[in-house]
Amino acid sequence: MIKQYRLHVKDKSDNRFSYSSAYYFYGMLMEFIDDEYGELLHEQTNMSINQYLVPERDKNEALWTVNLLDGNAIEVFSKILDKNKSYYIKNTNSDINVLSLEQKAITDEKALIDYAVKAYETNIYNIKFVTTTSFKSANEYMIFPSVNHIVNSLVNKWNSYSRTYVIDDEDAVNMIVSNLKIVEYRLRSSVFMLKGNRIPGFIGEARIYSRLSVALNEIWNILSYFSSYSGMGIKAALGMGGVSITGGKA
Q1: Phi, psi of 18 (to 5 degrees)
Q2: What mean pLDDT is predicted for residues 95-118?
């Protein structure tokens, strides 16, 4: 099961939000849970929660998206997100009001796959990198996306989530990478601040063209649809890698 929360929030202190503010929102959520579960989340390679913040320009308001990707996360965090109409973030001395809340649930893996297969009737995919996104390769941060990094990041996140449909055919993954091509992009460099460190990445849009067979395209559709819940790249739990992938016209 997946549960997504989208909260329109406002800082009563008139502090302006940044994409990096999501890190403090994550820390604030961790204060609500017990140490044992917090340690479990910290140890996981791919988190069962990810979240990000999109500031509204020239306002002390933002859209906060929280994705819960397993039953335990839903049980723990839904109680917090359903109940609280305000939050306090100690790191920034911010009083946060929730102006509105929307939620969406996907009941099980089969339902997600059914949605995904029907979501894209196109061979063009528009990727919007909503928050600073980055990949790490050979101990270096990647400040430009590649098809290889996009696909393998989403495969890893899907396999961490899935219990019944693991994508473990290396040849199939390589075929997907080989038959997708970035044909257009509008990207700019971006930095995510984390504990005083600057993590370089990018933000913006890219267009991907697919030459995949029907069977492989279904797998790519699943990964594309799932990306809006899983995030992409590194540190998606802390506010990086918020993405959405939609179908486009050639």
Answers
A1: -130, 170
A2: 94
Among 246, 238, 205, which Cα is nearest to 66's?
238
Q: Give the pLDDT band (50/70/90) at residue 117.
A: confident
Residue 27, both tokens: 């820390």
Asked whether the CA dihedral 138, 68, 107, 102 is positive or negative, the reply is negative
pLDDT of residue 250: 57
Is-contact 233 134, C-beta < 8 A?
yes
Tokens (6 digits) for 87: 């939050």
Backbone angles phi, psi at 219, to 5 degrees: -65, -45
Amino acid found at 221: N
Those residues whose C-beta lies under 8 Å from the C-beta of residue 35, and which sit 6 or more positions away, are none
- Pair of tokens at residue 195: 């504990």
Q: Say how far residue 24 (Cα) sits from the centre of its chain.
A: 16
Which residue's structure tokens are 């009941």?
107
The CA-atom distances, in angstroms, between 31 and each of 25, 88, 94 are: 10, 11, 15
Report the predicted TM-score, pTM, of the whole model to 2 decimal places. 0.93
Are 194 and 235 contacting, i.e. CB atoms less than 8 angstroms apart?
A: yes
